[in-house]
């Protein structure tokens, strides 16, 4: 699928990425979140997370390392992507969702041999979104996913780099519009049959080297079908079909277990 095309994607030219860190200490009710005081005139002495724009020539993880070191003086290790209101003067409340995500991550269930979800350092000459559309049965013991017609087994899905419907889009479309249009393109009544995506399971982006025009990204969305007696009809059955995923290892590999941690997606 295609909704326009970005002729080039270059950091600070036609796209910007912001990286922030949620740094926790303590356990349970004694958990504390590190905030830093802003020095900028517009928000002087107000509190915020260590955060800032990703610079051209550095990876997303490198930008987190730099921002935390510059603003808080700490050297940190990035564990995974994440997304009581303190009685202090905050720069803004937009980061409170990220704090909640950081706390949820600390208590989430872990599975052996399942790596954390971290940005994959791979340059993209464009903007791409991949739709991992899944439908669970009533008791969540079975899950079907929408895949390309050429993917006929779970093992083939696991071996394929892009087994799910993918769309390239341009800057003329904002992200929520891309999702809505693709939902309607893939399934009858797609916008009604599927929940608005609120989680991601993969992110590829490498805004490096500095002179590159491939500072784009590809994000894989976790898209859940609403509970119903049947699945929404596929609009292009010659291109896509439903595949049942039964192997526990493959389900975990794709973060399909209901209780697995998945970073949140917040649509603005």
TrEMBL record:
InterPro entries xref list: Nudix_hydrolase, NUDIX_hydrolase-like_dom_sf, NUDIX_hydrolase_dom
Coiled coil: none
PROSITE patterns noted in UniProt: NUDIX
Record-annotated Nudix hydrolase domain positions: 16-221
GO MF term list: 8-oxo-dGDP phosphatase activity; 8-oxo-GDP phosphatase activity
Extent of the signal sequence: none
The entry's keywords: Hydrolase
Name of this protein: Nudix hydrolase domain-containing protein
Originating organism: Mesorhabditis spiculigera
């Amino acid at each position: 699928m295609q909704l326009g095309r970005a002729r080039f994607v270059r950091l600070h030219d036609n796209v910007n990425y912001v990286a922030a860190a949620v740094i926790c200490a303590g356990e349970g009710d004694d958990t504390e979140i590190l905030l830093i005081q802003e020095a900028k005139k517009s928000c002087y002495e107000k509190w915020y997370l260590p955060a800032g724009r990703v610079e051209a020539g550095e990876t997303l993880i490198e930008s987190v390392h730099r921002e935390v070191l510059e603003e808080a003086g700490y050297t940190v290790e990035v564990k995974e992507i994440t997304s009581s209101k303190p009685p202090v003067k905050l720069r803004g409340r937009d980061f409170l969702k990220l704090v909640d995500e950081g706390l949820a991550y600390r208590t989430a269930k872990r599975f052996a041999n399942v790596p954390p979800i971290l940005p994959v350092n791979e340059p993209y000459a464009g903007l791409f979104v991949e739709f991992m559309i899944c439908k669970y049965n009533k008791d969540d013991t079975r899950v079907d996913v929408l895949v390309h017609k050429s993917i006929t087994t779970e093992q083939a899905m696991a071996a394929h780099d892009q087994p799910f419907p993918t769309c390239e889009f341009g800057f003329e479309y904002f992200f929520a519009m891309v999702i809505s249009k693709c939902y309607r393109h893939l399934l009858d009544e797609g916008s009604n049959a599927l929940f608005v995506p609120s989680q991601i399971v993969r992110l590829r982006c490498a805004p490096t080297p500095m002179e590159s025009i491939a500072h784009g990204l590809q994000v894989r969305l976790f898209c859940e079908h609403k509970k119903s007696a049947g699945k929404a009809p596929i609009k292009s059955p010659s291109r896509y079909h439903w595949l049942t995923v039964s192997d526990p290892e493959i389900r975990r590999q794709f973060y399909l277990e209901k209780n697995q941690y998945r970073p949140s997606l917040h649509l603005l």
